[in-house]
Write a structure and sequence with these properties.
The structure holds two protein chains of two kinds.
Chain A lengths: L1 E10 L3 E4 H8 L4 H8 L3 E4 L6 H13 L9 E5 L10 H9 L6 E5 L5 H14 L5 E8 L10 H6 L3 E10 L4 E8 L7 E3 L15 E2 L5 E2 L4 E3 L1 H22 L9 E4 L4 H11 L20 H11 L8 E8 L3 E8 L1
Parallel strand pairs in A: 4-5, 4-6, 13-14
Antiparallel strand pairs in A: 1-7, 2-3, 6-7, 8-15, 9-12, 10-11, 14-15
Helix pairs in contact in A: 1-2, 3-4, 7-8
Chain B lengths: L2 H11 L21 H15 L5 H5 L4 H8 L8
Chain lengths: 332, 79
């Protein structure tokens, strides 16, 4: 028994926020400088009434255009911006998508590592004989978590959704995983208020970071330098462990697709690990950092542009909020 | 690395626009000193001194001199 990735459906919201617009709105940071440093020119932002569930639905419709939906017996939704506290958004999607009720469906709350964890769960359920055809959706609307005056985070993050089908197969094309967690980093990427630890505060005070960015405890806070430190340690180690577990050398991997955090960070990781430029995906120019959707968006793009072809072995690595990280090698 | 080379190489690495920095230049006075510049400092120190600086350590630095002290004066060559 094995599992393989079958198809991708990508949805990006209609509204596009450009560097030019951000620069105009905030009166600082030059558009060209944002693009050269972060590798982002524009990002898609969901409408006020457009949720991660809506985006997941639209991404799923795209992938199901060419797939018999009656075969889907598991639906996994990765999001940190669910439609409700309860019920689970995945249950709502079962009904909206018209999927059969003999279906295992649930959400899981992870950020930039979410796609890797989703693949691990899909493979596990398939290999255990519980599922045969998994619809894995990663959908995120971080824009709704970001303070309207927070230029830094508005620049980095974009909204997006990706739907992926993973099917049982005689030939296993999803190989060995490395998964990691370190909750000591929880305060470095967090929305503090709105859960049951700290209630949403309607009178919350604005706070200013050392880099003059404004946020509040009701909104997303990111300590960029600490996240950078975390990735510099965790990602090279995860890649090394993943290669050992898969009994492969760096040279034997055809292509590397990491979570597209920002160009600066992932270029630094590439150099630190020693991956040749031509074997490394860097493209978040028109999407920004779409959290758990970056990796499937990248795989889909790399396939369409011929950067990877059938039979290639691709190392995927996701890392971020939690801290949480994961790596796996797949055959496309 | 000599301290004055450190100032010029770090400034170039961080893409600070003005070239005339000294050990006494305050980071916060530099146009372009933002969270990305802090990441660049972390990266530069990691590459050149094999040291991982934390964000809270970097919050306490004021000028290039204070960064030299944080890294350790013994890591620098005499002028």
């Amino acid at each position: 028994m094995g599992a393989k990735l079958m198809a991708f459906g990508i949805y990006l919201p209609e509204f596009v926020l450009t560097n030019i617009q951000l620069s105009k709105d905030f009166g600082r940071w030059e558009p060209e400088k944002i693009e050269s440093k972060l590798g982002i020119k524009e990002r898609h932002i969901s409408e006020v009434d457009e949720t991660a569930g809506d985006m997941a639905f639209k991404a799923a419709l795209k992938v199901l255009q060419n797939y018999d939906k009656s075969k889907i017996d598991m639906l996994l939704l990765c999001t940190q911006s669910p439609d409700y506290f309860l019920p689970t958004t995945a249950c709502i999607l079962q009904n909206r998508l018209g999927l059969k009720t003999d279906l295992c469906a649930y959400d899981f709350n992870l950020g930039c590592s979410g796609f890797i964890y989703g693949l691990a769960m899909a493979k596990s359920f398939i290999n255990a004989g519980i599922a045969t055809s998994v619809l894995l959706i990663t959908s995120e609307t971080y824009s709704k978590h970001i303070h309207p005056k927070d230029l830094a985070l508005k620049t980095v993050f974009g909204d997006g959704a990706a739907a992926t089908i993973i099917e049982s197969s005689n030939q296993d094309q999803i190989f060995e995983f490395v998964l990691g967690t370190d909750g000591s980093g929880k305060d470095n990427l967090i929305v503090s208020n709105g859960g049951f630890r700290n209630a949403f505060d309607p009178l919350v005070q604005e706070k200013t970071t050392d880099s003059d960015n404004i946020y509040s405890d009701n909104h997303l806070f990111m300590n960029g330098p600490e996240i950078f430190n975390f990735t510099n340690i965790a990602v090279p180690k995860a890649v090394e462990q993943c290669l050992v577990k898969n009994k492969m050398s760096l040279d034997e991997v055809d292509y590397f697709i990491f979570h597209q955090a920002n160009k600066y960070m992932i270029e630094y990781l590439r150099k630190k690990i020693g991956i040749p430029k031509e074997k490394y995906y860097v493209n978040m120019l028109l999407t920004g950092n779409t959290v758990s959707a970056t990796i499937p968006i990248a795989i889909d793009d790399a396939l369409k542009n011929g950067k990877i072809v059938k039979g290639n072995k691709v190392l995927l690595c996701g890392f971020g909020v939690g801290y949480s990280w994961g790596a796996v090698i797949i055959e496309v | 690395m000599k301290k004055n080379e450190f100032v010029s190489q770090l400034s170039e690495f961080c893409e600070f626009e003005n070239e005339n920095f000294t050990l006494e230049t305050l980071f916060k006075s530099i146009n372009g000193y933002d969270s990305l510049a802090v990441m660049s400092i972390i990266a530069f120190v990691d590459e050149n001194f094999k040291m991982s600086l934390t964000a809270s350590q970097l919050n306490k630095i004021t000028d290039f001199n204070s960064l030299v002290e944080l890294i350790g004066k013994d890591k620098f060559e005499d002028e």
